[in-house]
Amino acid sequence: MTARLKDDQPIFIQIAELIETSIADETYLAHDQVPSTNEFAKHYQINPATAAKGINLLVDQGILYKKRGVGMFVTDEAKEIIFKKRRERFYDHFIIPLVEEAKMIQLTKDQLINWIEEELKYED
């Protein structure tokens, strides 16, 4: 829990995304226990109800499950659920605007694909 909270997004969403990112990067694996609402509240100096709202959001989405009296744990399906959500968000937030901008500046499909392929080469 080292990330700082931002002012431009609801805190409970940020708590949920912090947990999601920790699951996506395998800081937490299936059946690992995640920090409690009180730990989040103390670390980020927020209301425990706000932290609980973020955690419960992940429970509702099937990413976390509750063990009564013990805490919250990562489900077997958590990583795939998170990747599916983030792929959809990636498409909406990056691909659609990219294609719209490319059309506006009359960039050809081949040029766009070439640029993406060139950029991907640098990561190999």
From TrEMBL:
Gene Ontology MF terms in the entry: DNA binding; DNA-binding transcription factor activity
Gene3D superfamilies recorded: Winged helix-like DNA-binding domain superfamily/Winged helix DNA-binding domain
UniProt-recorded name of the protein: Putative GntR family transcriptional regulator
Alphabetical list of PROSITE patterns matching this protein: HTH_GNTR
SMART domains the record matches: HTH_GNTR (SM00345)
Organism, as annotated: Amphibacillus xylanus (strain ATCC 51415 / DSM 6626 / JCM 7361 / LMG 17667 / NBRC 15112 / Ep01)
InterPro entries for this protein: Tscrpt_reg_HTH_GntR, WH-like_DNA-bd_sf, WH_DNA-bd_sf
Residue ranges constituting the HTH gntR-type domain according to the UniProt record: 9-77
PANTHER family on file: GNTR-FAMILY TRANSCRIPTIONAL REGULATOR, HTH-TYPE TRANSCRIPTIONAL REPRESSOR YTRA
This protein's record includes keyword DNA-binding: yes
UniProt keyword list: DNA-binding, Transcription, Transcription regulation
